[in-house]
């Protein structure tokens, strides 16, 4: 169960970090 929770937490952090990163990249290009 804790593995699944950490997996979901990782997926959530990746989305939270990746979406703004992609937005910044699209603005700078």
What's the quick description here?
The chain has 29 residues and is mainly α. The chain contains one helix and no strands.
Would you kindly provide a written description of the structure presented here, covering whatever features stand out?
There is one protein chain. With 29 residues, the chain is mainly alpha-helical. Helices cover 93% and strands 0% of the residues. It contains 1 helix and no strands. It is rod-shaped, with a radius of gyration of 13 Å.
**E-strand count:** 0
Distance between the termini: 42 Å
Mean pLDDT figure: 85
**So what's the overall shape?**
rod-shaped
Sheet with most strands: none
Number of H/I helices:
1
Strand content: under 5%
Low-confidence stretches: none
As a whole number of angstroms, the C-alpha radius of gyration is: 13 Å
Helix content: over 70%
In terms of structural class, how would the helical and strand content be classed? mainly alpha
Topology pattern, helix = H, strand = E: H
List the keywords.
1 helix, rod-shaped, 0% strand, 29 residues, mainly alpha
Protein topology:
Layout: H1 2-28
């Amino acid at each position: 169960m804790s593995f699944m929770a950490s997996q979901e937490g990782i997926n959530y952090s990746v989305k939270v970090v990746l979406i703004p990163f992609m937005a910044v990249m699209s603005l700078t290009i």
